[in-house]
Amino acid sequence: MSNPRYPPSPTLPPQGGQGVKVRELLLDAAQRLESTSESARADAEILLAHCLQKSRTWLFTWPEHSVPTAGEALFQQLLTQRLRGVPVAHLTGQREFWTLNLKVTPDTLIPRPDTELLVETALSLLPPASAGKTPHILDLGTGTGAIALSLASERPDTRLTACDFSAAALAVARENAQSHGLHHVSLIQSNWFEALPTQRFTMIVTNPPYIETNDPHLAQGDVRFEPLSALTAGNDGLDDIRHIVQHAPVWLIQGGWLLLEHGYNQGVAVTALLRDAGFTEVRCLPDLAGNDRVSLGQWLNAV
């Protein structure tokens, strides 16, 4: 889905005039981006690879290759937008997550590596499928579909239901599901549990909004270009997590799991919410940087 803030990029023709070398373009771009991006070199490589319709490996292999004039022009156009803060994923229209290349638009959150911990943990806890017992997973607030589709790609023997209140986000998730042939994922427009058909799930996973409404980081970096409704959740950032923890038990089978991604400083609060709601086996897992990132609990009580 297009967005008027970002004009569509012109298509690079297969051939063009000779120009500056790959190595020179990347060096200059990385230097220009250093003041605005913590990943300047990677940003430059991703954008140039996109403009040339090549892989980043190709750039490393052919640093002395001359870039066609049209490719350089497109690269400079995208570089200018990146210098203004526009996320790389919005400029290329895609982001790699888990083993998938996913379409991304300004209607969705940009999938981030930290969320892969949620996928990894879910896979470790999912029971094997058996006769008459197919694990059924619910992904709340699916966005691009990153979590649900990653799980579906690893476990084709499961059923996946993914919901989002945003019709625009669901359209992106649906396109991603179709492009990867993941047809065992059902996509439903729903504000959390509200519009879901009555059923119980083996597992509920979610990366809900968890940023405080007045957090100064909302005016920095890529989040400036992402939907605010997918980022913030009240004064302490826990409004949506509270809602999910409170209502999840009636949607879980006995022995089912609830897994939630949250902020680096919310582990103690989220695990307390899980325990207070009656979950057992409650724990919080750190991401690669050592920050609290995913909390989980098992529901053993009958509802």
Describe this entry's structure for a reader.
The chain has 303 residues and is of the alpha/beta class. Helix content is 34%, strand content 18%. The protein has helices spanning 22-33, 40-52, 56-61, 69-83, 88-92, 116-125, 146-154, 167-179, 239-247, 267-276, and strands spanning 94-97, 100-103, 136-140, 159-164, 185-189, 201-206, 252-261, 280-286, 292-299. The protein has a seven-stranded mixed β-sheet, with helices on both faces. A hairpin with a 2-residue loop joins strand 1 and strand 2. Helix 1 (22-33) crosses helix 2 and helix 1 runs parallel beside helix 4. The longest helix is centred in the N-terminal third of the chain and has 15 residues, at 69-83. The model is unreliable at 1-17 (pLDDT under 50).
Question: N-to-C terminal Cα separation, in Å?
Answer: 41 Å
Number of strands: 9
Order of helices and strands: HHHHHEEHEHEHEEHEHEE
- Average pLDDT reading: 90
- Estimated helix fraction: 25-40%
The largest sheet is: 7 strands, mixed
The spatial strand order of the largest sheet comes to: 5-4-3-6-7-9-8
Overall form: globular
Alpha carbon gyration radius: 21 Å
Poorly predicted tracts of residues: 1-17
Instruction: Tell me the β content.
Output: 15-25%
Structural class: alpha/beta
Query: How many H/I helices?
Result: 10
